[in-house]
Each structure stands twice: as C-alpha cells, then as structure tokens.
Amino acid sequence: MTVALKTAPYDAWDELKAYEQQRLTAGRYGACCAFTGTMRDFNEGDEVKAMSLEHYPGMTECQLEAIADEASARWPLLDTLILHRVGDIQPGETIVLTACWSAHRAASFEACRFLMEALKSRAPFWKKETLQDDSTRWVESNTPG
Amino acid sequence: MTVALKTAPYDAWDELKAYEQQRLTAGRYGACCAFTGTMRDFNEGDEVKAMSLEHYPGMTECQLEAIADEASARWPLLDTLILHRVGDIQPGETIVLTACWSAHRAASFEACRFLMEALKSRAPFWKKETLQDDSTRWVESNTPG
Amino acid sequence: MPVSVKFFAGLRESLSLSDLSLPADELHTVADVWHKATDGREPPENLLCAVNHQHSALDSTVSDGDEVGFFPPVTGG
Amino acid sequence: MPVSVKFFAGLRESLSLSDLSLPADELHTVADVWHKATDGREPPENLLCAVNHQHSALDSTVSDGDEVGFFPPVTGG
Asked: In terms of pTM, does the model score above 0.80?
C-alpha cells in the first residue's frame, strides 16, 4: 500500500506500470481498477488557465492512509496506490491516481470507487483556479460522485 | 471509440498512455477509469501453467462494439477503449483492458464497470486452462461481478 | 444459400463438430439447425446460440444464408 | 503546551489567519479555540475542523499541545 503526494507533473500510466512491476507479483492478481482525475481547461462554464492545490500537510497523508486502510479492511485487496498532486497544476495534468489490485474484479472496482469518494469528501485538498483574466477563485464544492 | 483483439502480449499501461496521447485532447476530460484483467497462475485451487482463449471471429468484434456503443449511449463518455487477448496466454499477461474517459468521475467508473460486466456475459470468448500435469480444462463459468 | 453452422469451445470438442454448411430447406428455427447438425441430439441446458453474430434463442428464426453459432457459456475477460 | 491553530484555503484568506499558537488555558473545545483565534467571530456554516489531523466537530475536546485545523469543504481529487 502506497500513498504519496506529488509536487511535480507525473504520468499516471508510467507510475502504474512501474508500481505494478516493482510491487505486485505477476500471476498473483487477476484484476486492477485504476482511476485518474485530470485538470480540465474549463469548469462551471469558464476557461481555466491554471490551478493551485493547497493541502494540510500531515493531515493529508494521515487521511489518505486511513482511506487506503479502510479499503483494505473492506475488500480483499492485494495492493493499493494513491498519488495526489499538490501545488501549481496546468490543464491536462493528472491530479489524482487511485488503483486497487485484487484476485477478482468486483473488489478492485468497488474499492477504487470507494477510494475516490472517500478522498473527495475527507482528504484536505483545496483547489484554487486562475481564469483567463488572471482572476482567481476557490472551487467551492466537488462534483457529486 | 476503439475495440481491438490482440494476438500477442501487450502492456496495458503503455497502451493507455499511447491511446490517450493520440485520441484524447488534454484538458478536455477530467476522469478516466481503466480496468485490467490479468491471467493468474492459479484458479479453483489448481496451479495453471498456460491458457488458450478461443473466440468467435466476427461475432466477438460485433459484440464488443455493441457493448461500447451501449456504454456511450448510457453515459456521457468522451472515449472508450476495449482490448482483449485471444490465443495462447501465459500467467501474468493482461487478458482484457477496458477504459472510459469522461468529464466527471461517475460516468467513467460506471461505464467501465458496465463494459466488463457486459463483456463477461456477452462477448464470445472461452478460456481453456493447461494445468501443471499438462491436462487441459475449459473454464466453466466466470466469477460473478 | 445454405445455412452456415459453427461450434465453439467445449461444445466443438465434445461434438467433434466445427464448421458445417446445411441446405436451408426445412430449417426454420435455430432448434431445427441444431437437430439437423447434431443428428437429433438433445441440446445441453446451458447452450448459447447466435444468428449472424447476435445472441439468439433456440426458437429464433433462421433464413437462407444465415450463420448460426452454438457455444457454451462465455468465459472471457 | 500551547494549542497550535491552522487555517486553510479560502478561510485562511478571508480571515487573514494562517498559523497561531494559543495558551491552552480555558480552551476546552474546538469552538473555544475558534472563538479565541478569531476574536469571537461566528463560525461559517460549512466550517470543517480537525484535531490532530482527525476530522472533528466544534464540540470536540481539545487538550494541551493539540493541533486544531479550520478549513472550508475539501475539493481535491
């Protein structure tokens, strides 16, 4: 199980490939469900030029680890990965990656969905958008899952 | 939307990375849910040495395309990818990859799960396992989703 | 145009039947095709059928030139 | 040991408060910490609180040396 904050852009699929090769044993798992959340260049009708992701150092890691532990307790998972960007982000960049490996598909699908819903409601991240005219605004609420 | 059968091993994460770069526009999508089904080296208590995946040429493509179309009709998807191996497979190799891109996470999660459930019940593939003693057996039924 | 008949997986092996071509006369339903192709065998309980690559049932209609497939429950993915 | 208080995101900006250290005397609950830190402001309706990195409520207990965080609804992922 790995939880990490990323301060620089990362390629989600490269990360998954490397993690799987390093941490999983080929032939032992039958299913992996992965989710990526990516910064869009528009939101609530406005073009968004950039984003800054504030977080609560210490609490963030603690909450993400608790969420991953909870998933492992509820589903028979072989491994779990959560990566989340913080700081300045450009449109098109990956914000979050969650992945769950299991023997059969139901556990990986359900646990991966759970990670995202729990992260969106409990992990202390806050998005601030910069619009085309360089004005900024805090994102007020997440899209319902 | 792309549906393809693969006769040789492929890396699911490399395929996703290449597909996303070629077919999706960065900044337009906010969510991608991907699932990989991988050959395990054990099944129903027995060690499995190899597998052969028979399919129904023509019908397979037709059914996979119908499933992808149905997902696009039910959820607001930006793109859908389904790859499936056929022929001889070794433990640890990826059998199936499904992925759905959308603006928000709910559509990608739900559609990706739908693709897998529909594929498992409708797409004409049959697994034949080779055990340690070189005996072979047809897999009789899929794990419930 | 004859009806083309295909068997797959365990069914192909147990019946020793793979590809057949049957004259379309007197073949009105998928069940007719099954009985003609298998010399009147009882269809297995879990038998799946397709007509022209679409999932079908034993009472589905068959026409000249159709392709009929018979196979056990699918196990891909 | 004083109580450490942290504000985040829009709340940090609107209150112009980031990190504070308050003497623990007379701070029994998260609400006490809020009122002391903000000079008696009304807490916003959607206020979230944490004590020692765990989600908490305004009536949660605070002890010597605790870290209390105040922030608006989270919007990560």
From this structure: yes
